[in-house]
Amino acid sequence: EVPISVLAQVPGLFTSDQALDLDELRRALSEALTEAIEKHNEMRATEGAALAQELGALLRNARALREKIAERGPELGEVYRKRLAERITRLGLDLAGNVEHGRLETEVALLADRSDITEELARLGSHFEQFEALMNQELPVGRRLDFLLQEIAREGNTIGAKCQDALLSHLVVELKAETERMREQVQNVE
Question: Using one digit for the tens of pLDDT, what is the confidence trace for 19-46?
Fold first, then answer.
């Protein structure tokens, strides 16, 4: 085996006796480079359109999950009241006699207040609007989309932490999964 470095030292081995037309070489190189750039840009546009469609579908799914969570919110007060009443009954306490008047309602009100997700739902809606607006821009938005997805995940985590409801927990897990799918796609956005 002869290394290329040894062959490169041999005078005249890699030269031609024919004179090169540098203008023709430059023109051919320029044409090839221009065509490669055009093909590259076409491919990026095609991939970007497909990515935008995928992100749009994921965003619609996330919005639908937000709506389901919002629909469940008003029902939580009654769910918490029934759950607390069942616990009191299991403990052998009589709601009519052993629990002071209004105490159950007070506890339910406190629990409902601590588990109020109205603000988180409003912020989620705002983040979804901003996400969609960014997707429609021609400028590089990948980092901003990624930041919004972090905020969306944070709101989902807060909702999950506040609500002690199996159905809401399931919806939050789905929202987190959808957010993660969006994050994976956004990694391909410039």
Answer: 678 889 899 999 999 999 999 999 998 9
Side-chain-side CA neighbours of 35 within 13 Å: the count stands at 6
DSSP state of 38: H
Residue 189 DSSP label: -
From residue 113, give the alpha-carbon distance in Å to each of 77, 84, 107, 160, 184.
9, 15, 10, 15, 35
Q: Over the stretch 101-156, which tens digit does the pLDDT of each residue have?
A: 566 667 666 766 677 888 999 999 999 999 999 998 888 899 999 999 999 999 99
pTM of the model: 0.71
Answer yes or no: are the C-beta atoms of 132 and 182 closer than 8 Å.
Answer: no
Written as six digits, the tokens of 182 are: 């969006």
- Concatenate the DSSP letters of all residues of 117-152 into one string: -HHHHHHHHHHHHHHHHHHT-SS--HHHHHHHHHHH
